[in-house]
Amino acid sequence: MEQIKNEKLTISVAPMGAELQSIRDAKGKEYLWDGDEQYWNRHSPILFPIVCGLWKDTCRISGREYHMGRHGFARDTEFTLINKTDSRITFALHESEETLKLYPYRFNLAVTYRLDGNKVHVIWHVENTDDKEIFFQIGGHPAFLVPGARKGEEVKGRLQFDNVAPERLYGNVGGCIVEGYHKVETEGGLWHFTENSFADDAVIFDRSQLKRISLLNGEGHPEVTVDFKSPAVGIWNPTGKHAPFVCIEPWYGIHDRVEYAGEFKDKYLMNSLQPGASFMSEYTITIGE
């Protein structure tokens, strides 16, 4: 486990999956879920080279079928620490014999966490080291403790959106998306959620409808704010488990459509890189106001 800190925050990151494990403030208060296996055994996995599910866990690349589980392999693969300073830490992953069996592209994936006051910048850098164009998706999945919620009790909370009338997608058939948009009722962008809000799995917004989501405390002030530029975002809690967290997930990619049988490169919200080219983006976690 690696750790960096400043005067306001301390974060811990594990080499496995380059996964953020903890965000604590100067008083020692924790904001990230602890990964209790009884509820959900992760904290903030990196989703790569797919986000969410493939139809029947299968994709087609250059006429061949490949099989990959939900969210891809990066979250379950050991990364290498390549740089660490007082305020920044970077882990990297590249292709291996095992990944090439699942995803036939050569790549470098670097994940950087940078502290800046009360902010954590999560930076993704994907480089095409292959001799052909590569295709990929990438996303975050941080799980934040809901203020006032406790393990084993029904979860209730409030999120503030920067859009007063967003429309969601459903990804609840075989882990894939069904057609049609559905309005999410808010009070001027304030969304009250319970476990039942996630009975149909994640609440998914695409089309860049949202760029900022704040998790509010009991006084109505932001406990955690996630800012992102990604075209999609998912919000999730494992309904029925009484787990006291909510995930706010910036995505450059999304599930397959139900019964999708096209090429991997033609998936909705797919990213591509020519040989030698690279992709870089980030999202920011702000603790407090």
TrEMBL record:
GO biological process, alphabetically ordered: carbohydrate metabolic process
Record protein name field: Aldose 1-epimerase
Keyword Transport: no
InterPro entries in UniProt: Aldose_1/G6P_1-epimerase, Gal_mutarotase_sf_dom, GH-type_carb-bd, LacX
GO molecular function, one term: aldose 1-epimerase activity
Organism whose genome encodes this protein: Segatella buccae ATCC 33574
Enzyme Commission number: 5.1.3.3
Alphabetically ordered keywords of this record: Calcium, Isomerase
Assembly description: Monomer.
Pfam family, one: Aldose_epim
Highest taxon listed in the record's lineage: Bacteria
Listed cofactors: Ca(2+)
